[in-house]
Each structure stands twice: as C-alpha cells, then as structure tokens.
Write a structure and sequence with these properties.
The complex is a heterotrimer. Helices cover 28% and strands 23% of the residues of chain A. Chain A has helices spanning 14-25, 65-68, 77-97, 153-162, 186-195, 212-224, 241-252, 266-281, 410-413, 416-437; strands at residues 4-10, 30-34, 101-102, 110-113, 119-122, 125-126, 140-145, 169-174, 198-202, 207-211, 229-233, 255-259, 285-288, 292-299, 302-313, 316-327, 338-339, 344-345, 398-400. In chain A, strands 1, 2, 13, 14, 15, 16 and 19 form a 7-stranded mixed beta sheet that branches. A 4-stranded parallel beta sheet of chain A has the order 8-7-11-12. In chain A, strand 9 (198-202) and strand 10 form a beta hairpin. The two termini of chain A are 20 Å apart. The model of chain A has no long low-confidence stretch (mean pLDDT 95). Chain B is an alpha+beta fold. Helices cover 32% and strands 22% of the residues of chain B. Chain B has helices spanning 14-25, 61-77, 97-109, 119-125, 146-159, 218-225, 288-298, 343-347, 363-378, 411-421, 425-429, 446-456, 460-467, 480-485, 493-511, 517-533, and strands spanning 2-10, 30-33, 49-50, 82-83, 87-92, 115-118, 133-139, 142-144, 163-165, 168-175, 180-187, 202-212, 231-241, 249-252, 261-265, 268-272, 276-277, 310-321, 338-342, 352-357, 437-439, 444-445. In chain B, the strands form 4 sheets. In chain B, strands 5, 6, 7, 13, 14, 15, 16, 17 and 18 form a 9-stranded mixed beta sheet that branches. The longest helix of chain B is centred in the last third of the chain and has 19 residues, at 493-511. Mean pLDDT of chain B is 92; it is low at 191-196 and 399-403. By secondary structure, chain C is of the alpha/beta class. In chain C, the strands form 2 sheets. Chain C has a 4-stranded parallel beta sheet with strand order 2-1-3-4, sandwiched between helices. The model of chain C is unreliable at 1-41 (pLDDT under 50). The chains are: A alpha/beta, B alpha+beta, C alpha/beta. At the A-B interface, strand 5, helix 4, strand 17 and helix 9 of A face helix 7, helix 14, helix 15 and helix 16 of B. Chain A: Pfam families: FAD_binding_2 (PF00890). Chain A: GO terms for molecular function: glycerol-3-phosphate dehydrogenase (quinone) activity. Chain A: It comes from Halorussus limi.
C-alpha cells in the first residue's frame, strides 16, 4: 500500500482541477492523476456557462444564463447540480482567478468577438479581453499579423459589422516587428512581448533596434485613425499579459484587448496556470505523465467499491489507493470517451455510455447539425455517480465531472467551462464529505 | 447572353478536359462547360490508380494493352501528376495458383513488364504486407492525381485559346430533331465565377458541334437531345486512410472481387472498392457495410489497416456502358471499354457525339479518338499532339534542390510543394511574401492557395483539389477558415464566409463515414473549435433579426 | 506503434512488477520496418494517425518558445513523417535544434510518439545529411560520448579539473570545437563511484528476495559519486542487496545528438548485462532520471535487442522504487534532518516518467527539510545541448523562467535528480544543488551525518 490518499481525481483539465481543489479545501488529502496535457490549452480561455438552449434554432444568444438553466432537459448536468451549484462553482472560480478574469459583476452574458469574426456569449472572460466586448460602443481596430494565419483582422471586422455590432470595426494586417520566421509559434511572439526583446526595425533606409512592445505600437499607429480600442490575436504575453497590454495602451493612447483564439490558446494556458497554482496552494498532489488504465475493486467500504486505480508505466502497473474517486477525463476530445467501429466506451472503469449500436446514428448530416456524438458521455445519479445500463450506480465511491458527462452538447450550448466547474466543485465536495463522514 | 464556338464540350472530367485540350491544340475554337468544378463527376471520385493494365491482363486484354501504352504516355507528359509507385499483385496462402499463373502470362502477352517476387522480396518492398503472402507479381502500376491532371489539361486548353466554364450547367440543348446547334447554360450560384456570366444568369452557346463527355450523366444530355443512351452507372466506395501504410499499389491477385486494392495516393492510402449498379448517378445510398468491407477485407493483405485511422470515404460512379444487346446482369461483367456514339449514325441526329464507358488511365486516347472524329466532321486536318507535348507544370523534370531554402520553407514543405506544382514551383512559391503554411497536414503554403484562387475564384473546393489543402488529418478543421481568409479583400466578406461554409460542409460529408476512434475525436475537436470557440454554428451574422446588444454585459469601463 | 493497442491490463494480480511480455512490445502483426533500405529504423508514418493537430506539443516546447529557427514538435514529428514517401530522405535540418527534453511526449493528449519521431529523424539527418568532417559533427560526437572523455579525465582528476577550468583551454574548446566557454566544466571526482564500490568490497547486504542492480550512469560515477553512495547506503538500510554490473552510458546524450549507432552499441551492452540480472530477480535502479527514461522508453522505441522489454519494465528511479516497495512516507515521518529549504526543479525526463511530484511530496513529510517546486519550466540545458556554443544562448533563455522561480523561493539551495539540470541550476543562480537521495540518506541511514 505504497501510495494512498483520501480522494484521487483522474484527469487534469478544468473539471479535474476544480474537483481536486474543492475536495482539498474541505481538508482531505487529494491526489490528481493526469496522463497528458488537458484540452485547456486548446480552449479559448473563456468561461462559458450557457449561451443557447439546446434545440433553440435561431434563438439566443441568452442574455441571462441562470434564468435559462431550469429549462434544460433533465439529463443535463446543470439539472443535476442546480442553478445554485453553478453559482457556487463560479464563486470558487472567481476566488481562484481574482482580477485575471472579469464578468462577475453581473449575471448577464457578455458577447466576446471570436477569431472567426463572430461574437459569442460567455459568462467570464480574461481581463485581457474585457475591452473587446461587443456591447461596448467604442470604435475598434482589429490588428492581425501576416503569419498568424488563424485570424484575418479585416475579414473579422467586416463580419462583426454584418452582425450589427453597435460600433465601427476596422481591420488591418501588419507584419509582426522583428525578424521572425514565418512559422514562428504564437508562444514565440508571446515570449518576445513578455521579455520586451529588442528587435530590428526597418526605417526609411536605415535599421534601428527597438523594444518589441514599442515597435509593435509603432507598426499599429498608422492604422489607428482615431479608433478607441485595438484588438490583437491572443498572444500579448504568456506570463506578463497585464504589463504587455499596459505598455501598448500607453503607446497607442487606446484601450487594448485580445481576441481569443483556437489552439494553441495562450489564455487557456494562463488559466491552466492559475488553476494549477490554486491546487498546489490547497495541497493537491499531482502525479502526471502516465495513463490510468484500470482499477482494483474491493475498497474499504465494501466489495463494490473501487480500491485503487492502476497507472500503466512501461509494462508495470502502479496502484494508487484512495477512499473516493473522481472521473474527470474529458469527452471525445479529451479522450475520456473512446470509440471504435462497433461502439463507444469509457475506457478506465468501463462505465456505461449510452449510444446507438449503429455508428451511422452518431452524427447529423450537416456539419453543424444536432450531433448525438456531441452528447456522448456517462449518465449519473443526483450525486454525480455514473449509472450502469440498468440505471444503478456503477461504483458507490466514483463520481464524474466535466466533459466525460453525457447529456449536453457544450459546443452548441456554449457551456463547456461552466459544466466542468459546476460538476467539478460538486463532485469534489461530495467526495470529500464522504471521506469525512466515514 | 449568347456566344459562339466551333465545338462545345460538355463535361469537365478527364475526358472532357482531354478533348478540349486536344482540339484546342489543333487550332479548333473550343468551349468547355462543367456544371460543378472540374472533376466534379467521376474523375474526382476515383482511387487514383494509374493502371499498368495488370488488372485487366486476364479478363480484358484489349483494355490492358491500352492501359500500358497510356501509362507510359502519362509518365512522359504529366510527370507532376504521376507518382511511379510500382504495383504488386499479391497472392496469399490459399489463393489459387492457376490464377496467378494466368495473370503472369496475361501481363506478358499484353507487353506489361511483370516480375515475380518471393514472399520475402514482396515484404521487403512493402514491410506492412501480411506474413501470409505467398508471392507477388510486380507491375508498373502508379498513382495519379486526377485533379491536377484535369486542371493541367484545362489550363493547356485555355493557353491554346479555349474557354473553360465551370459551375455552368447545361439546362437545354439548342436545335431540333435533326441537328443540335449548341446549348443553353445556367451559371450557377456556386462561387467561383470567372469573368463570364453572373450567378443565375443563362447563356446560349451556339456551336458547330457538341460533344457529350458527361460520363455517367450522358443519358441526361441524351434526353435533352431526344436520344437514348444506355449508361449503366455503377458505384464504388473508396476509403481514405490518414497516412501511407504502403508505397506501392497493392492488388489482391485473385479473380475480380470487392475490396482488392490499396493505392498510395499523395499522403494517404486509398482502399477500394465495390461495384454496385445504381439508378441515379447523383442519388444513391452510401452504406456502412461498404466501408467495413474495405477495412475487413484489405486488412488481410495489410494487417495494420485494421488499426489505422481512416479520414473519410467517398463514392464514385463508373459510367459503364454496354451495347443494349449484351445485357449483362452483373455490373462487374460489363466491359471497361469505351464507346464513341455518333448520334448521326445511331439516331439520325447531326452535330452531337457522346463518349461513354472507358477509364481514367486511357482518357487521352479516348480524347484523341473523339477529337479525330470531330475534326473529320469539321473538315479540320490537324493531327493530335497530346501524347508528345507535356502538360503545363511538367515541361521539365523539376529537380528538388537545396536551393528551395531561398523560399524560407522547411524541406518537407518545399518538397511537397514541388511535387504538386512541378515546373511552376519557382514561379508560384516566390509570388507571396511572407509565405506561411496554411494547411499543416498537407504542407500547403499561402502562395499555393492564392495561385489556386487566381485560377478558380471563390470556389474553395476547387482550391482544395488544386492544392490538397484541407485533405489531411484534420479534414479542414484547422485550415478551412485560413483558406477562406485568403479570398478577402479581393472577394467580399459574405462571399468569403459562403465559400468557407461550402468547403466545411463538403469535408464533413466524407468525414461522416470515418467517425470512430481518432477521427471521431478529431470531429469532436473540429466541432468544438468551430462551434464553441468561433460560434460559427450560431453565427449572429446569419440571423434574421439583430441581437439586442444592450441586454448583454458591456464591461466595466475604467478598470 | 499507435495507441490503438490498449495497454495490456495485468490480470487481477496486485504485483507491481507485472512484466509486459516481449510480444506485446513489438506486436507480432507489425514488425519494425525500414523507411530507408540501408537503415534499420521504424516506419513512423502510422504514428501520425494519432495526431489531431491540437498543437499542445508546440506550446510545451521550450525551444520553440525562444528559438526562431525551430518550427516545433508538431511539424518536426507527425507532420514531417506523414509527408514522407519511401524515396524521400531529406530531413529538415531544424531537427538538430530539438533538445530532446521530451516534453512534447508528456503533453500530447493523443499519444503521438513524438520523441521517437524526433530521435529517428535526427538519426537520419546525422546519417545522411551531416558532414562527418564538420566541426559540429566532431563536437557532437565528443559531447555524446561524454563517458569516454570522463574515463580519461577521471584517471587524472586534478590535472583535468585544472585544465578544464583553465580559460585558455576553454577558449580553445570554443574556437576549435564550438563548446561554450561560458560554462564551468564539471569537476571530476578524486575517486569514482566504481572505485569506491570496489574498495568497499561490493555488496554489504545479501538477500534472496530484495535485490536491485544499480545503473549509476556516467555522472554519478565520475563526477558526483556521493549520489551513488547515498543510493547504495539507503537501499542497504532497507535490506536490499545492491549489485553494480558493468555498464555503458545509457545513451541519452547520443539520442540527443542523433548518434544512434553509438547509442545502439551502448544499449546492446546495457541490455545484455542487465537483462540477465532481471531474470535472477533483480530490479534495475537509476538515480539519474535521464538514465531511467532511456532504459524505460527510448530503448524499446528504438532498439529490438532480446531483453529490451524486460529491462524497460523492471527499471525504476530510486525514490519511486522505495516508495512503491517500502512505507517510505512513514519512515520519513519519524525522521528528521537539518537540511533546510530547497528550490526543487523537476527534470523534464522525471516529468515524462510521472515522477515530477514525488521528491517534494516525500520531503514535505520530513522534519527539518522543505522543498518548494519551482514550476514546470525546462532548465534549458538538456544534457549536452546547452554546452554547444550556438545553443548556449537558447539554453539560458529557456532556463530564465526557472532561475527566476528559484530566486523567488526562500531557499538558498537547489534540488533535482538530473545532473545536467543541476549544472544549469548552479550556473544560473550560484546555489549549491543536492540530489533528493542525499537528503533521504541523511534522514534515514544511521551514522551518515
């Protein structure tokens, strides 16, 4: 019995970290096992709670997510934790991120411009995106970079206007100052801005060296033409985003904001850092780098309990024992749900995942149709414990949180981070309570 | 709007573009119309095999001889579209010896270079072959990119004065019961407009002679002309693997059957196929059993296929034809030969010829024969030069040199670009600065995408077939929007977004047939990226009514 | 091979020493195959099947973050491999900028064999495209074969240490070989670990059922024998029989320099010497996380000697092993030391083995010592990488974050399991750096302090 904890959480994304944090704050010993990086780095870093009701063709976006939660179908994870559960989880989140995030001053959703040129409803947004809200009527200049191909600023600006935003939007594409290769990663730009590296700038027939923040502002100035705020793709510093933004604002005399991007997402990385820090502070122990592949039955409380999960390491299996377990391995994207030509499964505990036996029933015909696959995941009881085929609890001491839960299409509803936070906090607290009660 | 031309070619597949090129090179004034983009029909839905003829060496020796002859021609004139992979006919333990001997004999009779490989030699050449290999016959099969080949033919035709119109559907033929004198065309709303016609506009094209090169759709044109063309469309499935498990075309050496070939095609391997007669070439079931059959059968040849990732499946429809008196009941018995139907001889209708049947490998030969026929009708005496003059892009054997560094491209990117662009690589790659890669999976740079846009306007599917952008692992999830961005500002924002949606839907259509394992994860990621991150699924710009922006959080100023 | 094969689930036994059988390592269905006729490398194209393009590897790559010439692991691995055809042999030269920290492996959510792809591509590049007479090749060869140099140097340690610290010699190294003069050459010990081991007469404890074979690697043998001694005493105090078989370099610096032939020779000797002991019931213990990484992951990925799989399955890092087999936490809870505060850095190769948190957790429970984790940045030295003149600056840029975090702690000393990370930590902060084994030995072994 080498390694033993009160609560073991499997999965290191928002749901796993939130569950671990919530449990650790209840004063129990918590270990978080994660195999690889989570999907947090692929996500925009926005914290969506609920932007649209399912099957609400053409309706929405919702201006008040909390009001709409009771209208969700019974199988939705929000119905399990309730509106209060969602609010409590947001309170935990707000406490963790402090002033790194905004949006907690109101119940209303914010509409944030996306790198695809649309706006999307979200409940919490990074401070770096705060000046970019679509309900703000200040004129905006979007700035893109020639080699950052995911964001075409002039096209996005035109598209925002066609959505009827209440401000004038223009776009400009410039070259990122300095001599970067065309395939430089956005982390490279972020790092240069963090360090305010000196870069070579071509003047009229001469070359000078400038700190990169100043050089960037100089490159934007000719396009400013009175715009009151300036939006950049989200690469304004990985470790010192506030400082980078302040430097640019001072140089430009305009508010500066970031437009959230797809993977690799720097706001997602910053959020991961904040959550990891909070977990460490709360005493969560992290064991990373190897997959949890199965479990041992026969826990303390009874034979149906899980006694340990087994981590696979080059052919050896290492058991991690605990009283309570939380499954937070993600959905199809995070690989917490697995599939082959014959069916869909949850690979660690083999929890039941409802799905049609014919894989041609898993999708809708249109790319943005109502896809059954988007709702694949485990079903739970009121205490977030996964249910088997017959509707009975799979294991008394296992709870699930986040995208591994079925019954919701987070991408269509814009509810990803919200579901992870709400179910993570609920599962973590519930697991901790169980430990203290026993 | 009206226009006149000597010859109107209907159909922008390999046969149609081949005919347009051939006639244009002989100085004939040609117009080609295609209702979709080039290769929209059967050509764009083939498995990419450049036949050595080995496949027909037992069952249809005439076709086999044509294949080996044309195989050699295409290597000469279309180097940048062909990869000389070589092929193997593999006999597994338990497969009949007699057939293997017949195949070998047949190849030799037809002049197809054939060499017997022991099991060990076969596996040394293709290490992922099953250990159940008994022996194999090596033949000069190859892989060909039908898209680039048709595009090159069309470009060559245009260079010789032809007019090529895509997204231009024939809605009626002009003329009467005795003579066809042209066609009425509708320019479709599909993006990709060139200088002629606006979307929805119709145009009359008057012609001395009309060639119906619509393959499986020939019967429809026939109906407009009031003649009966008995095409027997037959569908076949192709399953696309994510990467190349083999670098040689692998055929199962046994009498004809489903699922007996793996073609290494560009970065992928394509498994084929089935042979099922269908009523309508545009509306037929695409079924799960067909996909499963490919994987389950072909993993007996190449076991790793059972575990490997597929990225999509697609179906093609063969334009099979047999003279009505033959009456085969099984489509696999229908000849793969082609037929020139002169409607004057056949139906007393002047000014129209249809070409049906045949196969991609011999497209040039078919085009030559029909062009000879058309020239006879028009009294033109020029001879065919398509077998000697290289296609644009293949004029000189472009050698990949280390000098590719000057484009600032990583070597695999430079290599792939050169393989696609052939002798145009220099010109295209040096046209845009800076030149980032837009499609990471297939290593397609901005310069190549812009070059394709210059050729095909806002039709991103036409850009895709020219460049392979969006045809890799992620099936466009990470690059569709990057491609659409290149349309702007030359084309306006609504056009760019419409083009993006078209491409995204087209990719999804094929990807649906590969939704399990890695590809289902990929689909989940693509869906999340475009819906959760970008909100393209509920894009406010697409809404009828404006959002009440005032009801949402406007931020806290001054913080 | 792809992760399509689920890891084998050991049956219902609770034995943590469950051996994965030879067959499951190289599945019978898919044999290693040759991309290039003249080499013996795996065809890694199928590895691209697992990549779903999320770019997580790129965001975790310490080199891509600071080096303008490095396109990142996604391109370098799955993309470059997938774009290959049989006859294509050109590898982009940027693969030489990869430091082999393997952080891409531990970040990839989809199990793409990234470092294997990098190692193989680098091997191809060195084999086919690098000028064997170039300064770079000669220098890399020398660095990769540190053991050979160390063996000579440790014969006359004082003279060597004097010479290597001599600025004239350093200038020559930089000019002639391209070895940076910014770094202090590691000092050679007066007495190597093996000399000490011979002198003490080998094992002091014999046991039938608790037996380990020590893979000490080059560094604890020639430069920091104290780590090796601590390991031996600690294990003997728990009743283990420790043996020290003949061994070569684990190969880590060779992989990183694309010298796969050298690595292969060394691996062959190591597998031969250790696999026999495994059959006799010995587990293999390493005190350097790059050595254990190498035996565990790189050997089975790159070589196919008989016994490779069982060596991999029986290799452990020293603390990990004690933690699994002894009640180490309880022992530590009853112990105390006077060691103070440490700024602990988890080496990338410890992170890859899932060992990033263990040292801090163990020291947490020990009175009189405290270790604070300085975060998950890379130290930047990556073995021989940071010794190269042209990589020195990159190496220090990567390390900047770690130095900063070390300065922010209350500690005045550092701690890590990896000898080259230790060099970098000392070089960047001036702190003295300890190995966790030394602190544990102090706490748990009678008379060690």
């Amino acid at each position: 019995m080498a390694i033993e904890d009160d609560v073991t959480v499997v999965g290191g994304g928002i749901a796993g970290m939130t569950a671990a944090l919530a449990a650790a704050r209840e004063g129990v010993d918590v270990r978080l096992l994660s195999h690889k990086d989570s999907t947090l780095k692929s996500a925009s870093g926005l914290v969506d709670v609920l932007g649209y009701l399912p099957e609400s063709d053409g309706e929405g976006p919702l201006s008040d997510p909390f009001e709409a939660i009771p209208q969700l179908p019974d199988a939705h994870p929000y119905r399990t934790v309730g509106v209060e559960g969602v609010r409590e989880a947001l309170a935990v989140f707000d406490g963790v991120v402090g002033d790194r995030y905004r949006g907690d001053h109101t119940d209303r959703n914010a509409l944030v411009p996306t790198h695809g040129g649309a706006v999307k409803p979200t409940a919490r947004y990074p401070a770096s995106a705060a000046a970019g809200l679509a309900s703000d009527d200040r004129s905006a200049l979007l700035v893109g970079f020639e080699t950052v191909t995911d964001f075409d600023a002039p096209l996005a600006a035109d598209h925002l206007e066609s959505a009827g935003v209440p401000f004038a939007a223009r776009g400009a594409t410039i070259s990122f100052p300095g001599d970067f290769r065309v395939d430089a990663k956005i982390t490279r730009f972020a790092d240069a801005l963090d360090a305010d590296e000196r870069v070579a700038v071509q003047g009229d027939g001469y070359t000078t060296e400038l700190p990169v923040r100043e050089a960037l502002a100089e490159a934007v100035k000719p396009h400013l033409r009175g715009a009151e705020r300036v939006g950049f793709p989200a690469l304004l510093g990985q470790h010192r985003p506030d400082e980078v933004r302040e430097s640019l604002e001072a140089e430009l005399g305009a508010a500066v904001f970031e437009v959230p991007m797809g993977p690799p997402s720097i706001p997602g990385m910053r959020l991961e850092g904040a959550l990891t820090g909070a977990c460490r502070e709360a005493g969560v122990r992290f064991t990373t780098g190897n997959p949890v592949v199965d479990y041992e039955e026969g826990g303390r409380a009874g034979s149906e309990d899980i006694a340990a999960v087994r981590v696979e390491r080059n052919g050896a299996a290492i058991p991690f024992h605990a009283d309570q377990f939380v499954l937070a391995t993600g959905g199809l994207v995070g690989k917490g749900i697995d599939s082959d030509r014959e069916g869909v499964a949850e690979p660690i505990f083999d929890c039941h995942v409802p799905h049609s036996g014919d894989r041609y029933d898993w999708f809708a015909d249109a790319a943005f149709g109502d896809h059954p696959f988007a709702r694949f995941g485990v079903e739970t009881d009121d205490d977030l414990r996964p249910l088997d085929r017959r509707g009975d609890v799979e294991f008394p001491n296992l709870r699930a949180a986040g995208a591994v839960l079925g019954g919701h299409d987070f991408a269509a509803e814009k509810s990803g981070a919200g579901v992870s936070l709400a179910t993570g906090v609920a599962a973590g607290r519930s697991a901790a309570k169980e430990v203290s009660d026993s | 709007m009206t226009a006149t031309t000597d010859v109107l070619v209907v159909g922008g597949g390999s046969t149609g573009t081949g005919i347009a090129r051939d006639l244009a090179m002989r100085g004939v004034d040609v117009t080609l119309v295609e209702k979709g983009n080039l290769t929209h029909g059967t050509t764009g839905r083939m498995h990419g095999l450049l036949h050595s003829g080995g496949r027909y060496a037992v069952s249809d020796q005439a076709s086999a001889e044509e294949c080996i002859e044309e195989n050699r021609v295409l290597r000469d004139i279309a180097g940048h579209c062909v990869e000389e992979t070589g092929g193997q006919f593999v006999q597994l333990e338990g497969d009949p010896d007699e057939y293997f001997e017949e195949k070998l004999e047949g190849c030799r009779e037809c002049g197809i270079p054939a060499e017997v490989l022991s099991a060990e030699e076969a596996r040394e050449e293709e290490p992922y072959l099953t250990k159940d290999v008994k022996r194999a016959i090596r033949v000069p099969d190859g892989a060909v990119d039908p898209f680039r080949l048709c595009v090159a033919n069309a470009v060559s035709a245009e260079n010789h004065g032809a007019r090529v119109e895509t997204h231009a559907e024939v809605i009626d033929l002009l003329g009467d019961d005795e003579r066809i004198t042209g066609a009425e065309i509708r320019h479709e709303t599909g993006p990709g407009k060139r200088s002629h016609g606006k979307s929805g506009e119709t145009e009359e094209i008057r012609a001395e002679y009309v060639v119906n090169a619509t393959g499986a759709w020939a019967g429809r044109i026939g109906e407009m002309a009031g003649v009966d063309i008995e095409v027997r469309p037959s569908k076949g499935v192709m399953v696309v693997m994510n990467c190349r498990q083999v670098d040689t075309v692998i055929n199962r050496c046994r009498p004809k059957g489903d699922a007996d070939i793996v073609v290494p095609h560009e970065t992928t391997a394509i498994l084929g196929t089935t042979d099922e007669e269908v009523e309508d070439p545009e509306d037929y079931p695409e079924e799960r059993w067909e996909v499963d059959l490919m994987i389950d059968e072909l993993k007996r040849l190449v076991p790793i296929l059972g575990e490997a990732r597929t990225v999509r499946s697609f179906w093609g429809v063969r334009p099979l034809y047999e003279p009505p008196e033959v009456g085969s009941s099984d489509p696999t018995d229908i000849t793969r030969d082609y037929f020139l139907l002169d409607h004057e001889e056949r139906d007393d209708l002047h000014g129209l010829t249809s070409i049906v049947g045949g196969k991609f490998t011999t497209y040039r030969m078919m085009a030559e024969e029909i062009s000879d026929h058309v020239c006879d009708q028009l009294g033109v005496s020029a001879t065919c030069r398509t077998a000697e003059v290289p296609l644009p892009g293949s004029e000189d054997e472009s050698v990949l040199d280390a000098g590719m560094d000057r484009f600032g491209l990583r070597s695999p990117v430079a290599r792939r670009s050169t393989q696609r662009l052939g002798s145009r690589a220099d010109e295209v790659l040096s046209s845009v600065e800076p030149n980032p890669v837009l499609c990471d999976c297939e290593a397609v740079t901005r310069a190549e995408v812009r070059d394709a846009i210059d050729q095909s306007g806002t039709d991103l599917n036409a850009v895709r077939i020219r460049t392979r952008a969006s045809m890799g692992n992620c099936q466009g999830g990470f690059c569709c929007h990057r491609m659409a961005s290149e349309l702007h500002p030359e084309f306006d924002e609504p056009q760019a977004y419409a083009a993006l949606d078209d491409l995204f839907e087209e990719r999804w259509k094929g990807e649906r047939h590969a939704l399990w394992g890695e590809q289902l994860s990929q689909a989940g990621l693509n869906y999340a990226l475009h819906s959760a991150t970008m909100n393209r699924d509920r894009d406010p710009a697409d809404r009828e009514e404006a959002i009440a922006f005032g009801e949402f959080d406007g931020g806290q100023r001054g913080d | 091979m792809s992760d399509a094969e689920q890891p084998t689930n050991p049956n219902d036994s609770n034995d943590v020493n469950e051996v994965r059988h030879e067959e499951t390592v190289s599945d019978d269905e898919f044999e290693p195959v040759q991309v290039f006729p003249e080499s013996e490398d795996m065809d890694l194209r199928p590895g691209s099947d697992d990549c779903y393009k999320c770019s997580t590897c790129d965001t975790n790559c310490p080199v891509a973050e600071v080096d303008d010439d490095f396109p990142g692991p996604k391109f370098q691995g799955p993309e470059q491999w997938r774009l290959k055809r049989k006859e294509d042999t050109d590898i982009d030269d940027s693969v030489m900028s990869c430091s082999n920290c393997m952080r891409c492996d531990s970040s990839c959510p989809s199990d793409v064999p990234l470092s294997q792809m990098h190692n193989t591509a680098r091997g191809e590049y060195v084999e086919n495209q690098m000028d064997k007479l170039s300064r770079e090749y000669v220098r890399n060869r020398i660095l990769a074969n540190y053991r050979t140099m160390a063996e000579l140097g440790s014969k006359v340690p004082r003279l060597t240490n004097f010479l290597m610290g001599n600025s004239l010699v350093q200038a020559v190294n930089e000019k002639v070989l391209g070895i940076t003069s910014e770094r202090e050459f590691p000092e050679f010990a007066e007495e190597t670990f093996r000399e000490w081991w011979e002198k003490r007469g080998g094992p002091q404890v014999r046991s039938e059922d608790k037996r380990v074979a020590y893979f000490h690697g080059c560094y604890s043998n020639y430069n920091t024998p104290a780590v090796g001694k601590a390991m031996v005493r600690l294990f003997e105090s728990f009743g283990y029989e420790v043996v020290v078989p003949k061994q070569r370099c684990s190969g880590t610096p060779m992989f990183a320099n694309g010298m796969l032939d050298d690595a292969k020779r060394a691996a062959g000797i190591n597998v031969e010497n250790f696999s026999g002991l495994v059959e006799e019931g010995y587990d293999i213990i390493a005190s350097c996380t790059s050595c254990s990484m190498s035996l565990r992951q790189e050997y089975p990925e790159l070589f196919s000697y008989d016994g490779t799989a069982s060596v991999a399955a029986h290799t452990y890092e020293a603390l990990e092993y004690l933690r699994l087999h002894e009640d180490l936490e309880a022992e530590l809870a009853d112990a105390e030391v006077d060691a103070g505060e440490f700024a602990y850095h988890a080496p990338c190769h410890a992170r890859n083995q899932g060992l990033a948190g263990q040292a801090v957790e163990l020291i947490d429970g020990l009175d009189g010592a405290n270790a604070e984790d300085v975060g998950d940045s890379c130290s930047g030295i990556s073995g021989t990488y940071g010794w190269k003149d042209e990589k020195y600056e990159t190496s220090m840029k990567i390390g900047a974050e770690m130095f900063e975090h070390m300065e922010e702690t209350d500690a005045e000393a550092g701690m890590t399991e990896c000898p080259t990370c230790a060099m970098q930590m000392e070089h960047g902060t001036g702190y003295e750096i300890r190995h966790p084994l030394e602190v544990l030995e102090e706490a748990l072994v009678e008379g060690s302090h």
